[in-house]
Description:
The chain is an alpha+beta fold and 174 residues long.
Amino acid sequence: MIARLRELVRALDGLTASFALTVSEVTSPADVAEVRRLVLEYASAHADTPGVEYMHADAAALPGPYTPPRGGLWLARSADVGVGCVALRPLDDTTAEVKRMYVDPASRGGGVGRALMEALIAGARARGYETLRLGTLEEMTAAQGLYRSLGFAPIERYRPDELIHTRFFELSLT
């Protein structure tokens, strides 16, 4: 019986490993296509939100403003399927903006968002940025909790063109 339990534990470990989360910076056209799919999924989930047309335009133009060396895209995969993405866009020489943070609903609550944000923060530091900013819809309270737990603090509106019901955050990288 103990031998059978050990066998089951080994099988479960192998299964868990096959679904292990990986986060990497996007470098291939296939990865860009996967990020595009996720951004369009995000846009579809917020179809009634004013400004959703910008997400569609952003998806069509990828990698667009997120092109290295100053920008970047990160993709989270589980079992070789994209489950989340996030983008870094330069605002000026020392400040960058977090954009298109999205985690597939079935993958939420498992650390995907945190892993994406940690990779993006490391990437922003490596690019020499001193400050990260972001805007998120008021109703996205779980995302706001994540941002706060990573050290982001609420700030005044820095983008006058953003939606009215947007909250803004900033993180010092120095």
